[in-house]
Design brief:
The protein has about 500 residues and is of the alpha/beta class. The chain folds into two domains: about 260 residues, Ribokinase (UDP-N-acetylmuramoyl-L-alanine:D-glutamate ligase, 3-Layer(aba) Sandwich); about 150 residues, HUPs (Rossmann fold, 3-Layer(aba) Sandwich), CATH 3.40.50.620. It is built from 17 helices and 18 strands. It has a nine-stranded mixed β-sheet, sandwiched between helices. Helix 3 links the parallel strand 4 and strand 5. The protein is elongated, with a radius of gyration of 29 Å. The two termini are about 50 Å apart. The relative contact order is 0.09.
Length: about 500
């Protein structure tokens, strides 16, 4: 699964997502809480700075673009300063805001969070002040939203509905969007509002309530796995859904489909701030499903991104790079040392981001002897991570002749993988490792001193990229050829 997730994350592409919902502005007002007010037992906040970010559906949009998606934003904002700030940030993220409707009849929903700092650090939200309107939209605005959906849905890979109960996703609007999406054979993902009746989401592909939202909609107390399972089944059957994902904080998420029901676990996190976690989950599920992933794989990815999100303060997008780093960091060693080139390259990028130097060497390593062991120890001492390019059986034959190798490539790789000095092994078919060196881009290239006069393959490339070539000392009288000849001589006696 580790290599599968890495391959999927690096090949999500740029699916086009139609995002409809409640676009908001998040404001964070930071200040030092230096004393208690003499007027009341409350901290006095001396404001240091104010930061703004996209909230609600705006947060989903930024998450989608950070993960590589192309996003069309559809919603209603106020014709005010906050609305202009929101538009600027969405544009900067790469989202299409040409279908965000501005109106003078309602303000841009804005959440002002007052955040206290102790000694300029240790952020703690003290209070949130909201500016918003939840009044029904005019018939004209609803028609504009639906017309936009009609015009754009055929060119999209997925539709997201992010409902915060601010009137954009009314009963009429939701039902019509889902109807249009089904007609166009597009998947519809819904992050539902905290409401009792989910009727307006009937027929959607997938809904993503959290534990509290699912409990409110079903009337169940979701205190154990059985209650969660029953709630998911009820939602799926009652509202004719293809799937239900109930997010369960540190437990991960419960996935219910037509064929299975299971908890998809996640690792425990140091939760800093849950703001934006649901937005991140919706964005990840949307881009994964749009890219052709199945439900289970999509939920596994959303567990990772949602987990990364809660470790941040505020609704801060999670990038593909962060997801790759997380997968690699969590699974180092689990994939074994013998790697296909594509997953090896991804993992080596992670090592390089950690400022670790990559050492590369190559060879046939047919009959292992003391010389090989000391050579590999020397290689490892030249940097942090040793990658060994192992000639395949066909490659060895082309170099050594039809009687070699003595041991096949799988046996040779298994023996080398048991050595502490070797971190990764990649098998290659070419007679020389030049293509491999060009892709791996090692910081250090090591060959034996016997290559000094022959010319080290890859020397110019490595040095032109700021790396170095090191020639390793040899152990006299130790070679695979000599060992094999000695064995043949014994057989002939």
């Amino acid at each position: 699964m580790y290599e599968k997730l890495l391959k999927i994350v690096t090949n999500l592409g740029s699916p086009r997502v139609l995002l409809v919902g409640d676009f908001m502005l998040d404001a964070y007002i930071y200040g030092d809480a230096l004393r208690i007010s003499p007027e009341a037992p409350v901290p006095v906040l001396k404001v240091q700075n104010t930061e703004y970010s996209c909230g609600g559906a705006g947060s989903v949009a930024r998450n989608l673009t950070a993960l590589g998606a192309s996003v069309i934003c559809v919603g209603v904002i106020g014709k005010d300063t906050e609305g202009q700030m929101l538009k600027n940030m969405l544009t900067e993220s790469g989202a299409d805001i040409s279908h965000l409707i501005e109106t003078s009849d309602r303000p841009t929903t804005t959440k002002n969070r007052l955040v206290g700092l102790a000694q300029h650090r240790h952020r703690q939200q003290l209070i949130r002040i909201d500016k918003e309107s939840s009044e029904e939209l005019s018939k004209q605005l609803i028609e504009q939203i639906l017309e936009t959906v009609k015009e754009n849905i055929s060119g999209c890979d997925a539709v997201c509905l992010q409902d915060y109960g601010k009137a954009v996703l009314s009963e009429e609007t939701c039902r019509n969007i889902i109807k249009l999406a089904k007609k166009a054979e597009k998947c519809v993902l819904v992050d539902p509002a905290l409401i009792k009746d989910y009727s307006k989401y009937t027929g959607a592909t997938l809904i993503t309530p959290n534990r509290k939202e699912a409990g409110t909609a079903t009337g169940y107390e979701l205190t154990d796995d059985e209650a969660v399972s029953q709630a998911a089944k009820k939602l799926m059957q009652k509202f004719k859904l293809d799937g239900v994902v109930i997010t369960l904080d540190k437990q991960g998420a419960y996935l219910q489909t037509k064929t299975t029901g299971e908890i998809v676990p996640t690792r425990p996190r140091n939760v800093y701030d849950v703001t934006g976690a649901g937005d991140m989950v919706l964005a990840t599920l949307a881009i994964a499903l749009a890219a052709g992933c199945d439900f289970n794989t999509s939920v596994q990815l959303s567990n990772i991104t949602g987990g990364l999100e809660v470790e941040k303060f505020g609704a801060v997008p999670v990038t593909i790079e962060e997801v790759i780093n997380e997968i690699v960091a969590e699974n180092r060693g689990k994939g074994g040392k013998i790697r296909p080139l594509d997953s090896l390259l991804t993992e080596l990028q992670w090592h390089k981001r950690q400022k670790e130097s990559v050492v590369f060497t190559n060879g046939c390593f047919d009959v292992i002897h003391r010389g090989h062991i000391e050579f590999l120890r020397f290689c490892k001492a030249q940097g942090d991570v040793l990658v060994l390019g192992l000639n395949s059986d066909d490659s060895v034959k082309s170099i050594k002749g039809p009687e070699r190798p003595i041991n096949n490539q799988h046996d040779r790789a298994a023996v080398l993988a048991a050595m502490e000095s070797v971190d990764y092994i990649v098998i290659f078919d070419e007679p020389d490792p030049m293509k491999l060196i060009e892709q791996i881009k090692p910081n250090v290239l090591v060959k034996g001193k016997d290559w000094q006069d022959k010319g080290v393959v890859g020397r110019e490339f490595v040095e032109s990229n700021g790396g170095k070539v090191v020639l390793a000392p040899l152990v006299d009288g130790k070679s695979s050829t000599a060992t094999i000849e000695k064995m043949k001589a014994l057989d002939n006696q």
